[in-house]
Amino acid sequence: MDGLAAPDTGGRPLPGQPARSGVLLEEALGNVAAPALVVDDDGLIITANDAAQGLLGRDAAELTGQDSHDLLHRNIHGHAVPRTRCALRTALLTKDIRHGSAEWFVRGDGVLVQLSWLITPCTTGAGVTGALVLLYEQEKAQRGDDGRSAPLTELDRLALLAETTTQLTSTLDVDEALHRLAALTVPRLADWAVFDLLTEHDEVRRVLVTEHKDGILVERDDLQGPMPPVPAESPMPLSRALRGAASSLAGPATYQGPPDSGIAVEQQRLFTVTGMHSAVIAPIRGLRDVLGALTLGRSQRHDAFTRADLPLLEDLTRRTGLALDNARLYERQRKVAETMQRHLLPQLPSLSGLEMSARYLPAPDASSVGGDWYDAFALAGGVHALAIGDVVGHDLDAAAGMAQVRNMLRAFAWSRPEAEPSAVVTQLDEAVMHIAEAPMATMIFARLALGEDTLWRLCWTNAGHPPPLLVTHDGQARYLDGAHGILLGTGVTRPRPDAVAVLPPRSTLLLYTDGLVESPHHSIDHGLERLRRHAASLAHRPLDSLCEYLLDQVRPADNDDDVALIALRTPASP
Fold it and tell me: Which H helix or E strand runs over 398?
């Protein structure tokens, strides 16, 4: 955006240049007719023109300096959108030119508005880079004075189908896909959207009912929930659609007679509560099975659906069926992967005099399976082994590699119960290079033993992993920074050090993977300090409560990695 660029000064701002750049930027933006914002690389709003202020219901003072994502971006329910799912923020970080549509933003008065956007990188002056964001409202359904909606043109229909394909193929979440389709069809085609889905056991659930009310989509929880079974011979439109029959028209009169099934009773209730006078109902078909049915209904607009509307509805449900098929397949794979991951992780042993708790949290937006792992087991002579590690990758190969590394570590530790941790890990490193299918990995391996003074001692070696954290009962927390060595699988041979630390009575030891502290937007030191402060404040809590709190409060919201965590607490002095 050359019109927004500052003069070249060799990288040095002239006296007064930032102020003049700000004025020039506001003047340039004032000449843009569309609602427009300029944000810096962190997403903070630098300036907004009058059109944007009017559209968003906020003046310049309320916008300038605020995080654009946190302040404005919402989902259809008005809740904050996770940063990892924000396409606008992704485009800002990758400096792409990108377009988005049918997304929800919140005005200053709390009203949700559905907007499209276009973002392009720009230089804002004084060497500061950022992006120009143009906003515009979604096309609204056109109605005449008599409450009748104007029919869609052929171009409108093609645009709707193209937008539906884009929206549905860009998510693998069933709930998100249904909400997106509801936002595309209401109020453009109807005042109500109702989704009934068949489960794997052929049970019916009314999973989503939305209405257009006061300019926004409102989800009607009172109309959602389990439905009666699909009757085999019922001629009623919804029953036929759930059996895979062709789409059809329906209205209150359709369900006025004596109901022939429980589903017909629910349909009577639906038409009564919603006030729908006209509806179209179509099956949602997957590649092999009927997945459910979509009902679009009209209550506010006066004109009824006709048979001419059925082909468009069938095109929409055909795309929906493919999207739901993909989403369900992905969800099944996620569950299989996560179940496999959890079964690969061990049950914690009962250690005399010691408390222990562990957690594994899958990645939120990846494949729900990865290389993070923990282990704890008893060795000979009252010695206990602790381990935590992370095999590179976020897929089934990483999980398989993790299982190999963990099992070999157990075997080597058992075969050499008197060996120092560094000797065991050196042997494991050689095996990883020549036997295991795992790529590089990090880990901490430790031996825990009770000394003659009745204090527990930790002897450990660290292969490129974040350091253990020791928290005393009075809330002092420090990282055990010794014994650092290179990670596994590099092929480099170097001596591995060991370190020893005494664990005070009632102290807590934390071993964790980097998903708990790493963030794309902050240094690792920031994450480690955040963990230290939170853990110190929780020194008095039970271990289970401490682990849950750390996962909830410390794990960065923008981290898409999985997390493994193991916590151990020593007993009070005898």
Answer: helix 396-415
Tell me the per-residue pLDDT of 443-471, one tens digit each, with 9 for 90 and over.
999 999 988 888 999 999 999 999 999 99
Q: Which of 69, 70, 64, 68 is nearest to 49 (CA)?
A: 64
Residue 422: CA atoms inside 13 Å, Cβ hemisphere, count?
A: 15
d(CA 543, CA 45): 42
Strand partners, 447: 385, 459
- Nearest residue to 249 (alpha-carbon basis) of 326, 301, 313: 313
Report which residue type is found at 310. Answer: L
Exposed, middle or buried: residue 135 (CB in 10 Å: 0-12, 13-18, 19+)? buried
- Tell me how far apart the terminal alpha carbons of the chain are, to the nearest angstrom: 71
Cα–Cα distance measured from residue 371 to residue 70, given in angstroms and rounded to the nearest whole number? 32
Is residue 461 a contact partner of residue 467, using CB atoms and an 8 Å limit?
no
270 φ/ψ angles, rounded to the nearest 5 degrees: -60, -50
Q: How many other C-beta atoms can be found within 10 angstroms of the C-beta atom of residue 280? A: 26
Q: What is the pTM of this model?
A: 0.51
- What's the rounded Cα separation, in Å, for the pair 71 and 106? 8
Percentage of residues in the chain with pLDDT exceeding 90? 38
- For residue 97, the tally of other CB atoms under 10 A from its CB is 10
pLDDT score of 24 more than 70: no
Cβ pair 438, 401 in contact under 8 A: yes
User: What six digits make up the tokens of 553?
Assistant: 């409060």
Q: Quick check: helix, strand or coil at residue 417?
A: coil
Euclidean distance between CA atoms 469 and 177, whole angstroms? 42
Of 491, 124, 176, 108, the C-alpha closest to 323 is 176
Nearest CA among 206, 205, 267, 207 for reference residue 234 = 267
Asked if residues 274 and 224 have their Cβ atoms less than 8 Å apart, the reply is no
CB atoms within 10 A of CB 129: 12
Tally Cβ neighbours within 10 Å of residue 506: 17
Predicted pLDDT of residue 5: 44
pLDDT tens, residue by residue, 480-495: 998 999 998 888 888 9
Judging by DSSP bridges, how do beta strands 484-485 and 36-40 pair with one another?
Answer: unpaired
What is the chain's length? 574
Convert the pLDDT of each residue in 342-378 to its tens digit.
666 667 777 777 899 999 887 765 445 667 889 999 8
Closest C-alpha among 43, 64, 40 to residue 52: 64
Alpha-carbon span 245 to 568, nearest angstrom = 59
**CA nearest to 224, candidates 240, 211, 241, 239:** 211
